[in-house]
Design goal:
The protein is of the alpha+beta class. Helix content is 45%, strand content 18%. The protein folds into five domains: 82 residues, 3-Layer(aba) Sandwich (GIY-YIG endonuclease), CATH 3.40.1440; 140 residues, no CATH class; 120 residues, Nucleotidyltransferase, domain 5 (2-Layer Sandwich), CATH 3.30.420; 162 residues, Nucleotidyltransferase, domain 5, CATH 3.30.420; 52 residues, DNA polymerase, domain 1. It is built from 21 helices and 18 strands. Strands 12, 13, 14, 15, 16, 17 and 18 form a seven-stranded mixed β-sheet that branches. α4 crosses α12, α9 packs antiparallel against α10 and α11 packs parallel to α12. The longest helix is centred in the last third of the chain and has 30 residues. It is globular.
Length: 606
């Protein structure tokens, strides 16, 4: 290969818009850039006045430069974003693609539409609400809407083949349309309320419910009046705590901070005046890149590639100005055929939103730096290993422990991006199942956990990890289907035939092929850690229950026998076995034991 001569390249460059790709000696793309004037922009890299260490390092690595002319400046911006996504050059700011965004989906069923979590292609007929910044936001909103309006969540085959109401009806999260417990007219009224709520018109719903409450009260239908009153109260609390109501528009607010060479950008998503939630991003940046450069590259990749037209806001608010803002706004507006405004100077409510976004970015960055080398990297590795669209926020793992069926206990441990979340650990003492039936024990634990989660409007995990194989996974799938838990990935982890650590087999719900990760995989280390912690927590709880049962005396279960009389009986006969053998008259000879009580003891022990 001939030696690279930048002067010869620059001499023949056109003063036109386009992109340039820089290569190293190995032929790898190390940087992709855009330019309104290619000749002027490329020549700036070889100026003697360059002081920036990052640019000096980049220039020293260049072995070749290729350019591509584009029709317009906006085409150059879009092509640059696509090429960065394709080649992942090491000197560019890189944003990991989330592939798709979660939505709430209201189906087009003529009488009884279902409301559920949705991610992926929008093939089904119905309305899609969102996008939400992450799946946790969708599940939280879905849980609230189920409590308020009780729309069904089940799939069409499940709905059409029911002969009795499911647990959703029993815990008052559904009105039971599958078995005719609600008329189509009443159900459609709740559907209309959901549409108003998701359209940011909760005040209209409140006014309607208040009027219905008054009418029911006048008609002496106090039970219905109380129901409307409770709905109004819940909606009022949501307005105060869950959502910010203000500018009636689709707005993204970006907070950005830089510390110790790491940038955090927090994107707050506001749709129809409601704050749907936020998500922190940590773009991979080469050393020496400024916050302005990182934010500029982040916005190009985020809005030109990641967010589809229906997900892009009409207004983007940020607190940092950089030269390419107008260029980016123009490219977005052209691509989406609608005007997109990017502003850096705001007042009032939007200024408060910007302060909130910056505060969240600072908080997320502080925690990220503290855990950067441990839990966060492992969770990120798990996302890559399982090809997930976004990094899991929370994982729950279940294990069952017993000794030949005695004192069966199921455990649930919780891990998030910061590691073990011990305040959320749970244990379940298993009752009324066949001794040694691990499947039934697991089913009971999952039902108790997710029935309660539905009742208290909990958010729930992104992944449920089960210590076991295909059998345990099928049990979990059945429970999740019965309780209509959406947006959760089920994984079973088994040790395989060798039973050696590092040889575990993963069975992922909905996937045909089992997965075996390398023994040195960070993702495998995370799953092993979570599995082992669930086992430790389960066996500790089991041993406590077993020891308690073995120390328990059957005399304690007899009414009228306290600690003093129990001690007297054991001392008189020399042990519980001799008490069992004694007759009524012999027991009555013990001080403090009447003939009537002796008869009761005799019958209870026999």
């Amino acid at each position: 290969m001939a030696e690279f001569d930048p002067k010869a390249l620059i001499k023949n460059l056109a003063s036109a818009p386009g992109i340039y790709q820089m290569y190293d000696e190995s032929g790898d793309v190390i940087y992709v850039g855009k330019a309104r004037n290619l000749k002027k922009r490329v020549s700036s890299y070889f100026s003697r006045t360059i002081q920036d260490p990052k640019t000096q390092s980049l220039v020293a690595s260049i072995a070749n430069i290729e350019v591509t002319l584009t029709r317009t400046e906006n085409d150059a911006l879009l092509l640059e974003s696509n090429l960065i996504k394709k080649f992942l050059p090491r000197y560019n700011v890189l944003l990991r693609d989330d592939k798709s965004y979660p939505y709430l989906f209201l189906s087009a069923h003529p009488d009884f539409p279902r409301l559920d979590f949705h991610r992926g292609a929008k093939k089904a007929k119905g309305k899609y609400y969102g996008p939400y910044p992450h799946s946790g936001s969708v599940r939280e909103t879905l849980s609230l809407l189920q409590k308020l309006f009780k729309l069904r969540q089940c799939s069409e085959p499940f709905f059409q083949n029911r002969t009795r109401p499911c647990l959703q009806y029993q815990i008052k999260r559904c009105t039971g349309p599958c078995v005719g417990y609600v008329t189509a007219e009443d159900y459609q009224e709740q559907v209309r309320h959901v549409q108003l709520f998701l359209g940011g018109k909760s005040e209209q719903i409140i006014n309607e419910l208040v009027e219905k409450m008054h009418q029911a009260s006048k008609a002496h239908e106090f039970e219905n009046a109380a129901k409307f009153r409770d709905q109004v109260g819940t909606l009022r609390r949501l307005q105060e705590k869950q959502y910010v109501v203000g500018d009636k528009g689709d707005i993204d607010v970006l907070g950005a901070v830089l510390e110790m060479g790491v940038v955090c950008i927090h994107v707050m998503t506001i749709r129809a005046g409601r704050l749907l939630g936020g998500k922190a991003y940590f773009p991979q940046s080469p050393k020496g890149v400024t916050l302005e450069e990182t934010l500029s590259s982040f916005m190009s990749q985020y809005y030109l590639n990641m967010v589809r037209s229906e997900a892009t806001p009409k207004r983007i608010v940020l607190g940092i100005f950089f030269e390419e803002l107008d260029w980016l706004a123009s490219a977005l507006s052209e691509q989406l055929k609608t005007e997109i405004k990017i502003v850096t100077k705001v007042r009032g409510l939007q200024a408060r939103w910007l302060d909130m976004a910056n505060a969240n970015a600072q908080y997320a960055l502080t925690h990220h730096l503290a855990n950067k080398m441990s839990s966060f990297r492992r969770m990120e590795a798990l996302q890559q290993a399982l090809h997930l669209s976004e990094m899991p926020e929370e994982i729950e793992c279940y294990d069952v422990s017993h000794t030949l069926g005695e004192a069966t206990v199921a455990s649930c441990v919780v891990f998030n991006r910061e590691g073990a979340k011990k305040s959320d650990y749970r244990r379940f003492n298993i009752h009324d199942v066949t001794a040694g039936d691990d499947y039934a024990a697991l089913e009971q634990a999952l039902k108790r956990r997710y029935t309660k989660l539905k009742t208290v409007n909990g958010k729930g995990p992104d992944i449920i990890l089960i210590d076991g194989g295909k059998g345990q996974l099928h049990v979990a799938e059945r429970v999740i289907e019965e309780l209509q838990v959406s947006g959760v990935l089920l994984i079973a982890i088994s040790k395989g035939r060798s039973r050696k650590p590092g040889m575990e087999i993963l069975t992922v719900s909905g996937r045909d092929q089992q997965l075996r990760l390398p023994a040195d995989s960070l993702a495998m280390h995370l799953l092993q850690q979570i599995r082992d912690e669930a086992h430790r927590f389960a066996i500790t709880a089991h041993r406590g229950q077993r020891n308690k049962a073995r120390q328990h005396s059957s005399l304690e279960d007899i009414p009228g026998i306290g600690a003093k009389r129990r001690r007297a009986l054991l001392q008189h006969f020399g042990g519980l076995q001799e008490v069992r053998r004694a007759g009524v008259e012999a027991i009555a000879k013990v001080p403090g034991i009447s003939l009537q009580l002796a008869q009761l003891i005799h019958d209870a022990l026999r």
